[in-house]
Design goal:
This protein has a single domain, classed as Alpha/Beta hydrolase fold, catalytic domain (Rossmann fold). Helices cover 40% and strands 16% of the residues. It has 15 helices and 12 strands. The strands form 2 sheets. The protein has a 10-stranded mixed sheet with strand order 1-2-4-3-5-6-9-12-11-10, with helices on both faces. A hairpin with a 3-residue loop joins strand 11 and strand 12. Helix 8 packs parallel to helix 12. The longest helix is centred in the first third of the chain and has 26 residues.
């Protein structure tokens, strides 16, 4: 009798977590909960800090101007315009004396905006952050400062909170975040008057999918002339959401769909329920093919992919996959994944404890992959390797 009860206890102990996990998977098919899991926009990582007081993150008075952007579908996005330190120092007296009212009701009247708009040599990074938190969360403020380090009197940064993040209105979706990115690009091109040749797109984690989608949409719009930015820098990207589900770890430790990944057919079936696809691999390939069709000499694309080996959230194999899609698209006859890996092993630049880098050049542009040994998923954003990539993307190694 006791033996029978013991077996039943073991059976219950095994069945209970299995049923709970099955229920968890079922919940993820519900669009609302799926969005929460993918975008984590309900996670507040800044506590009671006021996003309209950037000095709380160590910025100088009026070095950052908070302002609003309005999307075509009626949402309001919260944004920061961050002045590079060298430029700030040149105009410090005027900036300090300027009234600081938190959120700028009209950013065009602020000195910071005028310094961007009126300088024919000003450079601009459009920043698309990862899932969770807001534009003031984690390593993002340090990242803004790092991005301008390569040209501290020229490189401005404008970052947005997508809809549903921070104080921005609305709820995220794949189409909605692309519209948010297009709204920011339209502001940069039209309101600030910065040509695309002086704009670099930067994305981290899910922001890599947003930045590549933006570049793809503006380069392949049949109704308008293609818009080609100076460069794109993506850090800790993923190939697409379907591939990400098999590898993503919550809190760097818990594999979200790790148990299911052992059963490919089941994983494939579950992926049919995914609403936000974010096929960065396909969009990068299509972007490169579109650039090859655009007439004229000179490079049409400049893409740098950066990942850390110790990224426990998104494994760096995703960068390998993304790089292969790009190289395959740029090769007239294509190239197999395994063949490219062999070529990379022979041609890559070894950087010791700094990792390694490879580069693929075509008549239409340049694609780079740089894998560093240390940097985790978020800390890497503030590293010099990213600052260097941004300067390179502007095509100005020595600005």
């Amino acid at each position: 009798m006791y033996h029978h009860l013991s077996l039943k206890s073991v059976a219950y102990a095994v069945a209970a977590p299995t049923l709970l996990y099955a229920a968890f998977l079922a919940l993820l098919t519900i669009p609302y909960l799926q969005n929460q899991a993918i975008y984590l926009h309900g996670v507040n990582q800044t506590g009671s800090l006021d996003l309209n007081v950037p000095e709380q993150w160590g910025f100088l008075r009026n070095q950052v101007t908070p302002f609003h952007l309005h999307t075509p579908d009626g949402e309001t996005l919260h944004a920061w315009h961050i002045l590079p330190l060298g430029l700030y120092q040149q105009h410090e007296d005027r900036l300090v004396q300027e009234p600081s009212s938190g959120l700028a009701p009209n950013i065009t009247q602020r000195l910071s905006f005028q310094l961007l708009r009126d300088d024919p040599d000003a450079l601009l990074v459009l920043y698309f952050h990862g899932a969770g938190g807001s534009l003031g969360s984690g390593w993002r403020p340090q990242s803004y400062r790092g991005l301008s380090a390569g040209a501290p009197d020229k490189i401005h940064v404008v970052a947005i909170d997508y809809r549903g993040y921070g104080t921005s209105t609305g709820s995220p979706s794949e189409a909605a975040l692309l519209l948010d990115a297009q709204t920011l690009a339209a502001w940069a091109l039209n309101d600030a008057g910065i040509p695309p040749s002086r704009i670099v797109l930067f994305g981290q984690s899910i922001g890599t999918a947003v930045s590549l989608s933006l570049a793809h949409s503006l380069a392949t719009d049949d109704e308008k002339d293609p818009v080609l930015f100076s460069g794109i820098v993506v850090v800790a990207p993923f190939a697409d959401v379907a591939t990400l589900t098999a590898t993503y770890r919550v809190g760097q430790t818990i594999p979200l769909l790790g148990p299911v990944a052992r059963f490919p057919r089941l994983l494939t079936w579950l992926n049919t329920w995914i609403i936000s696809k974010w096929p960065s691999n396909v969009r990068l390939a299509e972007l490169i093919r579109a650039c090859q069709r655009i007439p004229g000499e000179g490079p049409k694309y400049d893409v740098t992919i950066i990942h850390a080996e110790d990224d426990y959230d998104i494994p760096w194999v995703h960068s390998d996959m993304l790089y292969w899609y790009g190289v395959n698209a740029s090769s007239p006859s294509g190239i197999a994944y395994g063949e490219l890996e062999k070529e990379k092993a022979d041609s890559r630049v070894e950087l010791g404890d700094g990792g390694w880098a490879v580069i693929s050049r075509s008549a239409s542009g340049v694609l780079r992959e740089q894998i560093i040994k240390y940097g985790l998923h978020d800390r890497i954003m503030s590293y010099p390797v990213v600052s260097q990539a941004v300067v390179r993307a502007f095509g100005r190694e020595k600005i």
